[in-house]
Amino acid sequence: MIKRFMTLERHIIEGERKHPAATGELSKLLSDLVIAAKVISLEVNKAGLMDILGYTGDNNIHGEQVKKLDMYAHEMIFKAMDHGGHLCVMASEEEEDIIHIPDAFEIGKYVLLFDPLDGSSNIDVNVSIGTIFSIYKRVSPQGLPGTLEDCLQPGLKQVAAGYVVYGSSTIMVYTTSNGVHGFTLDPSIGEFLLSHENIRIPKKGRIYSINEGNYKFWHPGLKKYIKWLQDEELETDRPYSSRYIGSMVADVHRTLFYGGIFMYPQDSRNPNGKLRLMYECNPMSMIVEAAGGRATNGKKRILEIVPESLHQRTPIFIGSVDDVNLVEEFMSEENNNQEKE
Ligand code: P6P
Is residue 201 situated within a structural domain? Predict the structure, then answer.
């Protein structure tokens, strides 16, 4: 619901004014990103009409087949961001190495990491997909090209994070640690308008979200937790409902609004789970924590993980504080039981 005619650009500028030391550069960076989001949204919403569905025939560095829309989104963001003069380096989930700012352009003080189109396996069947971004301040000397070190910072160092979910409408949610705010794209005027101010995640939910097809490979404590959620007990809102879209942006977006928990755990086949720390888990964790929720790898805050490589994966349990705390208790209790045996 549009409460007041507040565009995303104006909200960003007003938000930055609250920081006395702000130079306005972050506002301009975020506004450039908004332009990319509008263009990607346009293509996503007519993908079925254009020859940009299907596969490019290439594989990305993770061996996954690259969708045309994936690459389109990647290129759109690069072209929108490379010449603004705000960045010293970028990194994309679609590119193996860091992406340098072309020599012709001014080098800035920020770092942008992004997943151009998360959930791309859903593109051809019209299921919600999304763009995720994460912004840091550089740590290497000003004026020089950015480095891998600039990109490998713990999530706690993020100065901004956000996502765009391309669904029944296109919504952009972002935070600069001054609350979490959602904006809905009004295609008739090409503006993102404030629709969800100061989003707060419920302390406890009654929806859990996980790919139950992997049940056999899970930690025994997680198996017990999921079975516990499926038992009946009115006082603890059980049984929970199960919802799984298979697109992290959409699953976490729902969790942010309705509460509950989204999980992509490690399992016996994937000891670090599937989702990427830098492109998916850190930005989503900053947003959910800023909205009053919690995000861990089952033991430790996602935002405190010190990254070792650009594309490293991490298990993630993210959502309402009570729900994340409880799944951790189930897994730690099971670990203790196993140690006693
Ligand atoms: P699975 C999409 O491909 C993605 O990277 C995330 O958006 C999503 O949460 C996850 O993978 C789904 O993975 O193994 O359940 O299909």
Answer: no
Identify the domain containing residue 219 by its residue range: 207-340
Please identify every stretch of the chain with a pLDDT value under 70, giving residue numbers as ranges. 1-4, 47-57, 60, 63-67
Pairing of strands 170-175, 160-166: antiparallel
Q: Is the CB of 147 under 6 A from ligand 1?
A: no
> What distances in angstroms separate CA 208 from CA 43, 230, 233, 263, one per listed residue?
31, 10, 16, 8
Contact 239, 232 (CB under 8 A): yes
What is the Å distance from ligand 1's center to 214 Cα?
12
pTM: 0.93
Q: Assess whether the C-beta atom of 115 lies below 6 angstroms from ligand 1.
A: no
Cβ(248) – ligand 1 distance below 6 Å: yes
Can you give the pLDDT at residue 55? 59
Residue nearest to atom 5 of ligand 1 (CA): 119
Return the pLDDT at 325.
98
Tell how far the Cα of 245 is from the centroid of ligand 1, in angstroms: 9
The closest alpha carbon to 172, from 15, 33, 5, belongs to 33
Per-residue model confidence (pLDDT) at position 131: 97
Closest-CA residue, ligand 1 atom 9, reads 248
Number of residues that make up the chain: 341
Q: Which of 155, 176, 196 is the last residue of a domain?
A: 196
Residue nearest to atom 12 of ligand 1 (CA): 246
* End-of-domain residue from the set 196, 226, 255: 196
